[in-house]
Amino acid sequence: MTEKVKNVLLPLCFGILIIAIWQLGFIHAALGFKPFQLPVPSQIVITLRDNFAKTMFDTVITVSAALTGLILGCAIGFLIAVIATMFPKWGYSVLSIIAAVNAIPIVALSPIMNRWFTDGFSQKVGVVTVVCLAAMSINAYRGLNDLRPFAKDLLESYAASGRVIFLKLRLPNCLPSVFTALKINVAAAVMAAMISEYFSASTSGIGFGIKDNLRKGIMAKGWSYIVVAAVVGIILYLIVMMIERRVIKWHASQR
User: Fold this and answer.
1) 10 Å Cβ neighbour count for 119?
2) Which of 76, 191, 194, 197 has its CA 20 to 30 A from that of 208?
C-alpha cells in the first residue's frame, strides 16, 4: 500500500469509526446525553434531506459573502505586503498595526460592521475582509523578503531593475507563503461569515440557521447546518490545495 493511499484511508476509516460509535449511542452512554441533546448521524442526514433546498440557499448566502470577503482581504493584504517591501522603513510598522487589528475578536467586529453598513451581506463581507488581512499580509511579506542568500545581489550585479527583481525573484518566492495564507484564510473566512450572521441584520445563512434552530431546540436541523458548514470548509480547502499543486508544482513541498 502506497503512502498516499494510507494518508487517505487511515483518516477515512477513523472518521467512519467515530460516526459508527456516535450512531450506536456509545457517545450518549459515555457522556450521559439524551437523544434530543445530540441527534444521531442518521437523524441529521434525514433532516438535511428534508430541508435540502433551504439549507443550500443559506449555504450560497454564507459562501458568497465568505468568498467575497476572502478575495478582498487577501488582495488588500497582499498589496500591503508589497508596499511594506517597497518602503521597508515604515512597512514593518504597518504590518504590526495589521496584526493588532487582527487581534480584535469577531464578536466585536460584527457589531462595528453593523454600524458601518446597512445590509447583512456588506456586514459579513466587512468582517471577513478584516479577518483575512493579517494572515495574507504577514505571510506575503515574509515570502517577498525571505530570499535565497545572494539571489538579490546576483540580479543587482547584472543591473536588473526593481521591477525585474520583483517579477523574477520576489513574486515566485512568495507564492508558497501566499498559498499558506490562503489555506489559513479559507477556513477563517467561512467561520467569520457564520459568526457575523449571529449579529447581522440578515435572517439567512448557515450561521443564522445554526443559531435559530439550536435556540428553538430543533437540534437535528441545527446539526445539519453544522455538517454542511464543515463540508463547505473541507471543499474550499481542497480547492485551494489543488490550485496550489498546479501553480507551484516546482516547489519542494509539492514533490
Assistant:
1) 11
2) 76
